[in-house]
Amino acid sequence: MWAGKGERHRKVDVEFSEPFLSPPAVNIGFTLWDISNSANIRADLAAEGVTETGFTIVFTTWGDTQVARMRASWMAIGEVENDEIWDV
Asked: Is residue 84 part of a domain?
């Protein structure tokens, strides 16, 4: 993505360590943002295909934005089988 050509998105599958009883709410955010300041910064980060067992992180950029690297973190909140067995 540094050249500003070719693939302008990246997908990463995430699998939960334990399944939820129903699809959880997923919050996702940038934790590292290494982008050139020579052009406008255009970026989209989304959680797609959320199920009881996981989801896909999708990062997209467009135009002449130059991305050296990007890192994301996530948190899933949802229904579990027993309120006493979850681990932080």
From this structure: no
Q: What is the mean pLDDT of residues 49-78?
A: 94
The pLDDT, as a whole number, for residue 55 is 98
Pairing of β 44-48 and β 9-15? unpaired
pLDDT tens digits for range 16-59: 998 999 999 999 999 999 999 988 899 999 999 999 999 999 99
The parent domain of residue 47 ranges over 9-77
Q: What is d(CA 59, CA 70) in angstroms, rounded to the nearest whole number?
A: 9
Cβ neighbours of residue 88 closer than 8 Å, sequence gap 6 or more: none
The span from the CA of 18 to the CA of 5, in Å, is: 38
Residue 67 lies in a domain: yes
Q: With CA atoms as reference, report the closest residue to 24 among 77, 68, 84.
A: 77
Place of tokens 């540094």: 2
